[in-house]
Amino acid sequence: MTILRRRSEASRGQTLVEFALILPLLVLILVGIFDFGRAIYGYSTANNAAREAARVAIVDQTLSHVQDHAAQHAVALGVDPSTDVIVDYRNAEDPENVGSCDAAVGTEEIFGCVAVVRVLYTYDAATPLIGNLVGTIQITGEARFPVAFSCVDPAPDPPIECPVGS
Known about the structure:
Layout: H1 2-57, H2 63-73, H3 81-84, E1 85-91, E2 113-123, H4 128-134, E3 137-146
Antiparallel strand pairs: 1-2, 2-3
């Protein structure tokens, strides 16, 4: 009887040691899954905010309206409208030429342009160990739509109201 009891007590201690060795690894994996989910959420939210702001930019070329709209759709990310939302207008024939249609804003020539909105988000992992491994990740959401309506607020006399902004 005493032999069986001793093996049971030794086995109980061994199980406790094994659990203590595996627990930090298990917690690190669970927190890593949590951090990965936060990164995916940031990517999805930045892209959604860029898409919604680009939809505003195609009918209302007022910079502050577009930036504020993007920030409203990325409020959980803490996006600053003035620094983290970049808006430019590009020629439809050369959409990689940044700012090629910026001079056309407010004129009839804007109809040959594409509105491009970029939302920048800097992701930092919540776990220091994972943060040290992957570092800071720059997440960028971008959307491009052809301009559908020319409007810059405040408009000349008589004042007109842009369809979306205010």
